Amino acid sequence: MSGLTINSSKSQPQPELKLVTRQKVIDNGLQVMQEIGTNQICKVCIEHGGSCCSGCRHLSDRVGCQLRNTSCTAWLCGFLKYMLFKTNLLQTWNDYWEQVPGQDFREDFTPEVFFIQQQLALPNLQELSEALAADLNELAEQQASPDFILTLRDKLDKNVDQFLYYKNVSTKKHLKRNIDVLSGSFFRFHQALDSYLMAAEGADNRL
Ligand code: SF4
Ligand code: SF4
């Protein structure tokens, strides 16, 4: 992301501020989403009636969103939140979007230009997205209830949010167990996650 840089003060190091445009932030968020492969998960979700845009007045049939905004770009459903949570990237995502003012429900009041301190960059998660999409697809086909995976998505969302919110160790332990149970059938995803975490650990050790 390009922008004007303000240098740190002489006496005390200050985080570097960059001037960015609202559009640049949206484009950057969409690009990161595309790079981590979320479209594969969305495809399965939408095929089973779970589009998060459904019913939105800004959605145009066969055209798509007519009012892309910072709020919808920042928003994560339970599936995407779970994937970033398990890869230890959720905080990075949240920290970035916390810098963006004016987010609202399906619209924003974000200024056209503003300052941020932190850029958004996530590693390639294509294999993880692909694995999770395949798990979800299989689950959806196996289950009698058509909205099984959508209920699962909402439960994952709630439990990950609560896990981040609560500080109490036993509450966190309980929530982590819930998340593990909810994601117990994500066999391909867990396999891909193990490989990803091993590679990430190896890269850290080489630093
Ligand atoms: S709810 Fe999640 S997986 Fe479904 S379409 Fe929206 S972002 Fe994609
Ligand atoms: S405003 Fe948000 S919810 Fe509505 S169509 Fe656009 S992305 Fe989807």
Question: What this model shows, in words?
Answer:
- This protein has 207 residues and is mainly alpha-helical.
- It has one domain (5-206).
- 57% of the residues lie in helices and 7% in strands.
- The chain has 9 helices and 5 strands; from the N terminus they run ββααββαααβαααα.
- It has helices at 22-36, 38-47, 70-74, 78-86, 90-98, 126-142, 148-165, 169-182, 187-206, and strands at 5-6, 17-21, 59-60, 64-65, 113-116.
- The strands form 2 sheets. A 3-stranded antiparallel β-sheet has the order 1-2-5. A two-stranded antiparallel ribbon has the order 3-4.
- Strand 3 and strand 4 form a beta hairpin.
- Helix 2 packs parallel to helix 6 (126-142) and helix 6 (126-142) packs antiparallel against helix 9 (187-206).
- The chain is globular, with a radius of gyration of 19 Å.
- The model is unreliable at 1-5 (pLDDT under 50).
- It binds iron/sulfur cluster (2 copies).
- One iron/sulfur cluster is lined by residues 53, 56, 58-59, 65, 67-69, 72, 106.
- This is DNA mismatch repair protein.
- It comes from Paenibacillus sepulcri.
